[in-house]
Design brief:
- The structure holds 2 protein chains of 2 kinds.
- By secondary structure, chain A is α/β, with parallel strands linked by helices.
- In chain A, about 45% of the residues lie in helices and about 15% in strands.
- Chain A has one domain: Rossmann fold (3-Layer(aba) Sandwich).
- Chain A is built from 5 helices and 4 strands.
- Chain A has a 4-stranded parallel beta sheet, sandwiched between helices.
- In chain A, helix 3 links the parallel strand 3 and strand 4.
- Chain A starts with 7 loop residues before the first strand and ends in a 7-residue tail after the last helix.
- Chain B has a single domain, classed as Serine Threonine Protein Phosphatase 5, Tetratricopeptide repeat (Alpha Horseshoe).
- Chain B contains 8 helices and 2 strands; from the N terminus they run βααααβαααα.
- Chain B has a two-stranded antiparallel ribbon with strand order 1-2.
- The two termini of chain B are about 15 Å apart.
- Classes of the chains: A alpha/beta, B mainly alpha.
Chain lengths: ~140, ~200
Amino acid sequence: MSDEKLVGIVLVSHSAAVAASVAELAKGLAGGAEAVPVAAAGGTEGGDLGTSAELISAAAAAADRGVGVAVLMDLGSAVLTVKALLAEGDELPDGARLVDAPFVEGAIAAVVTAATGADLDAVEAAAAEAYGYRKG
Amino acid sequence: MLDADFFRRWMAATAASVDREADRLTALDSAIGDADHGSNMQRGFTAVMAALEKETPGTPGAVLTLAGRLLISTVGGASGPLYGTLLRRTGKALGDAAEVSEEQLADALRAGVDGVMALGKATPGDKTMIDALVPAVDALGDGFAAARSAAEEGAVATTPLQARKGRASYLGERSIGHQDPGATSSALLIAALGAAAGGEARGE
C-alpha cells in the first residue's frame, strides 16, 4: 500500500443503517478501495432517524487525510445541515465539500475514483456524473 | 438600545413559548410532516438556554451566533440548520456592538432571513417559515407588536397554500388546508421579541 494521501468520503443519511450499508457497498464494489477513508454519519446520536451535525463533523474529521473530503447526503435536513456546517467555516475540515450526487451511485463513483488517488475535483465530478446513468 | 441581556431574554422567551406550544407544533407537523417539529425545537432551545447560561456571551451578536450554532448541532431536523442560519446570520450582521438599535436589529434580521432563503431555496408563498419571517421583518420598523401581528398573520395565511419546499411538498395538494409548522414556530420567535422588551420595561 502506498503512502499516497486519498480523498476522504463522508456519507450522510437520515438512517445509520443506510449510511453504514452504502459505505460498505461502495467499498465492496470498488476494487482496491481498502485505503479510501470512508466514514458514515447516519441518523441522530440517539440512534433515531434524523441528522446529527456532531456525527457529520466527527465523520468528516475521521475521513480527512488533508487532501479534501467529499460529503454526500441523502436529502432534506441532511443537505441543509451539511450546507449550514460548511457556512460555519470551522466545523468541518478545510477542503470538505458538499458533493451534489445521487447517494448510492454517487458514493460508489466517489470511492472508486478516490481509490485511484484522484483529487477532490475528480472525485466530485465522478460522483456528480452518476446523475447521468439512466436505467431505462 | 438593545443589549446582550435583551437578546438573552429573547432566546429565553422563545424557549418558553416553544415549550408551551410544543404539542401544537408537533400536531401541525403530524398533518403534513413527520410529527417532530415541537420536540425538535424544544431540544434545540433547551440546548441554547443551557449554553447561554454557561458561556454568557457579552454582545447581542455573540448571543445570537452561539444560539444559532447550538440549533444547528442539536435540533436533528431541517429546522436546525434553518433556524441556526437565521440566528447566526443575524448575529454576524450585528457585529461586535455592545448595544444595537431596533433599526439595526431589523436590518440584521433581514440578512438572517435572506440567509434562510438562500439555504432552503424557499421564497414567499412556498408555505414555509419564510411566510412568517418576511412580513415580520417588513413590519419591524413599526415596532415589535407590529412584527408579531405580521408574523402571526403570515403563519395563518400559509393554511390555504400548497407546500413547495421540504417534506410537505411531497403531499402536493393534500398539503392545502394545514397551517405550516415552521411558519408557526417562526411567529413564536418574533412574538418573543415583544416579550423580551416587556421584560426590560419591568426590570427597570
